């Protein structure tokens, strides 16, 4: 009987993950958010702003996105612990900082996929007519 119950849980979890995504990813994201909540207010506000920007332009794959966010949290935790001012972390241009940070995580970026799709489409039509 216990295997039947476990089997039902397993099927339920598979269905749930199919609908909502892997539960492990959700756990990692919650841990990341908990870490950022522990930061001093100004660091917390800054990392939230960066996260919002990076969610639009960053990796589309959960693993890559979570790795990027965890690395960002590491950077801000270390900076807060060392008393490094936020401007010393992000520089005078926060957009350039975000763009440079994002370049370290090219895997899964939607823009990379779209660039590849465009190049492939042009290659297909030019190969046919060459």
Automatic annotation (TrEMBL):
InterPro entries: UCP029876 (IPR008316)
Domain of life: Bacteria
Pfam entry (one): DUF1048
Gene3D superfamilies according to UniProt: c-terminal domain of poly(a) binding protein
Protein name: DUF1048 domain-containing protein
Organism classification: Bacteria, Bacillati, Actinomycetota, Actinomycetes, Streptosporangiales
